[in-house]
Amino acid sequence: MTRKDPxxxxxxxxxxxxxxxxxxxxxxxxxxxxKCEPYNEYQRDTLKRAQRNAEKAKALLLEIIExxxxxxxxxxxxxxxxxxxxxEALVDAVEVAAPAIGEELTRADASSYADTLRRNGIxxxxxxxxxxxxxxxxxxxxxxxxxxxxxxxxxxxxRTMKLTITGDLDLVVAVEDDGxxxxxxxxxxxxxxxxNLNRNKDGPEGLGFGLSCVKNLVEKMRGEISLKSGEGTGSxxxxxxxxx
Length: 244
Prior knowledge:
The protein has 2 domains: about 70 residues; about 170 residues, Heat Shock Protein 90 (2-Layer Sandwich). Helix 1 runs antiparallel to helix 2 and helix 2 packs parallel to helix 7. The protein contains 7 helices and 7 strands, in the order H-H-E-H-H-H-E-E-H-E-E-H-E-E.
C-alpha cells in the first residue's frame, strides 16, 4: 500500500477550508449587493479582482492535489459524457483566463452558449465515439487536463483557440491556438515543472505548472501528449488517453 504523503493532507485540510471560506464570502458580497448599499466602481472592481485571484489559487491547489494523487495511483473509475466534463472545464478555464468572457458565458442560456463561444473566438468540435457514448475514466482528472489545455491556449492566442475531441477507442483531444508559437529549441522544456516560457509578453505570466501537470496526469493514465508548434505558427497540443 502506498504511503500517504503528508503534504497532501496539509493541502486538503489546512488550505482548502480557509480558501473556500474566502471565496464564499466574496461571492456573497457580490451576489447580495442589493441588500447592502450599492458599491462604487472601485469597490466592485476590488471584489472581482479578489474573486479572480482566489479562484486562481483554488485551481492551482486542486491541480497540486490531483498531481500527488495521480502519483500515488489514485484514480476513480466512472462513466461520463465528455460533453458534460468539457463544459465544466471551459467555464473553469474561461473564468480565470478571460473573466469578461466568463461573465458572458454565465449569463448565456442553452441556446446562446455555443454562439457566445464562437463570437469570442473559442471553437469547439466534438466527434467520434465519445460524442454520445460515455467515456470511462476519472472525470476529475479529465476535467483538469482539459482545463489546463484550454487555459494555456486562451492565454497565448491572438484571436482564436480551437478544441477538437475525436477517438473511437482512446479519447483524443487537440487544443490549438493562433499565438506566437514555441521556438523549437524551447519545446523540450515546455513540460518542465515551473518552467515559464513567457511567450506573450503583454499577457499574464503563469507559474509554469499547468502543462507539466497535464503531462504528469496523462502519463499516469497510460496516455500520450504531443506538441506541434513553431515560432510564429501557433501551437497545438494533442492528448491521447485510453479508457480505464
